[in-house]
């Protein structure tokens, strides 16, 4: 059997979502390379395109490839452990920032050296030259192979799909479509504002998965005590449960809380905002509902006080507005709040 022209190829992208153009690029590279490395990252993340889902998509498409998908929590964990210094870059950061970040991912974490980069973008020549100049490749030069830069074979882009209200299998595979079309709704609010009741009610009404608040589950299991490390475990488990629910859902997932709640309790319990917890709070949702504290406070034996509930509400408002996260306020009785939710979902 004739050998392929390249020993190891590299493709870097958001893959948010993985579309037919990406598939064409990957298969073209596979035909020309003995080994293929796929690296994916994006900051900000996009709803329905979490790192866990992107990793599943890439491994399903190219099971023989080396796949590395990272997000902000992964990078912060590496920084905590030592040996990794670079922060997770924003998508809007300069090209050389991304080149250095990607080069170090391949060299430090994968300990691999490519001899060719495949892209469908204008940046490919500069990226290959950067890898060559920094000794990341096998030889003196990392080559660049550009594939369908004019999108003639597959007239599609991730940006257009994310901004569109509809997409088809001409753009996405069936497995990616199944995950990507699911919308995640998140409920936030102080104690005794109905978020757990409402999220369960909506999940039942729309026959959709409910992602329970794992923090409360662990708190009860630990007899009402949590450590700072427990809060990291809560975020990891909560987000993993969301990904699992998204892969099981037909249309919607309802999430009783988000990592933002865990950050709130980190401030309350330990007066600290660790960078790793902050990274988890970047996780996006299609819609956030904030349950307002405008009906009587109900003490169930585990809650604090009505004053704390108001403090929580003010904290959420400040954080959502500071982060420029769109959200809907829910007010009134439970029935009135449920009606407000339906209007948002169905509208």
Q: Can you describe this structure?
A:
The protein is an alpha/beta fold and 347 residues long. It has two domains: 6-177, HUPs (Rossmann fold, 3-Layer(aba) Sandwich); 182-346, Rossmann fold (3-Layer(aba) Sandwich). 46% of the residues lie in helices and 15% in strands. The chain has helices at residues 20-32, 51-61, 72-81, 95-109, 124-133, 158-162, 174-180, 195-205, 214-221, 228-248, 259-270, 275-280, 306-322, 334-346; strands at residues 6-13, 33-40, 66-69, 116-119, 143-146, 183-189, 210-211, 252-256, 287-291, 327-330. The strands form two sheets. Strands 3-2-1-4-5 form a five-stranded parallel β-sheet, with helices on both faces. It has a five-stranded parallel β-sheet with strand order 7-8-6-9-10, with helices on both faces. Helix 1 (20-32) links the parallel strand 1 (6-13) and strand 2 (33-40). The longest helix has 21 residues, at 228-248.
């Amino acid at each position: 059997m004739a050998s392929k022209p390249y020993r190891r190829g590299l493709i870097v992208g958001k893959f948010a979502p993985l579309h037919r153009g990406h598939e064409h690029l990957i298969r073209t590279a596979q035909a020309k390379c003995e080994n293929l490395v796929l690296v994916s990252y994006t900051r900000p993340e996009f709803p329905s395109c979490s790192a866990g889902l992107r990793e599943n998509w890439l491994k399903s498409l190219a099971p023989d490839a080396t796949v590395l998908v990272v997000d902000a929590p992964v990078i912060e964990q590496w920084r905590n452990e030592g040996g990794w210094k670079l922060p997770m870059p924003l998508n809007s950061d300069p090209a050389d920032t991304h080149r250095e970040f990607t080069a170090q991912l391949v060299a430090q974490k994968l300990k691999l050296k490519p001899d060719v980069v495949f892209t469908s973008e204008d940046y490919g020549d500069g990226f290959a030259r950067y890898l060559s100049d920094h000794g990341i490749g096998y030889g003196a030069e990392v080559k660049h192979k550009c594939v369908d830069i004019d999108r003639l074979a597959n007239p599609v882009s991730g940006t257009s799909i994310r901004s569109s209200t509809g997409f088809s299998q001409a753009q996405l595979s069936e497995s990616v479509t199944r995950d990507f079309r699911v919308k995640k709704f998140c409920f936030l609010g102080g104690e005794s504002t109905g978020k757990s009741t409402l999220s369960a009610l909506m999940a039942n009404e729309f026959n959709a998965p409910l992602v329970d608040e794992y923090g409360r589950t662990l708190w009860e299991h630990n007899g009402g005590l949590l450590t700072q490390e427990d809060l990291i475990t809560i975020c990891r488990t909560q987000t993993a449960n969301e990904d699992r629910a998204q892969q099981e859902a037909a249309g919607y997932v309802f999430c009783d809380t988000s990592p933002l709640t865990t950050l709130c309790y980190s401030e309350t319990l330990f007066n600290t905002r660790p960078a790793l917890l902050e990274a988890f709070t970047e996780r996006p949702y299609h819609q956030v509902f904030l349950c307002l504290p405008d009906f009587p406070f109900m003490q169930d034996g585990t809650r604090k006080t009505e004053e704390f509930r108001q403090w929580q509400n003010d904290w959420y408002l400040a954080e959502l507005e500071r982060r420029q996260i769109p959200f809907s306020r829910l007010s009134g009785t439970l029935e009135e709040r449920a009606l407000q939710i339906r209007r948002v979902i169905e509208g």
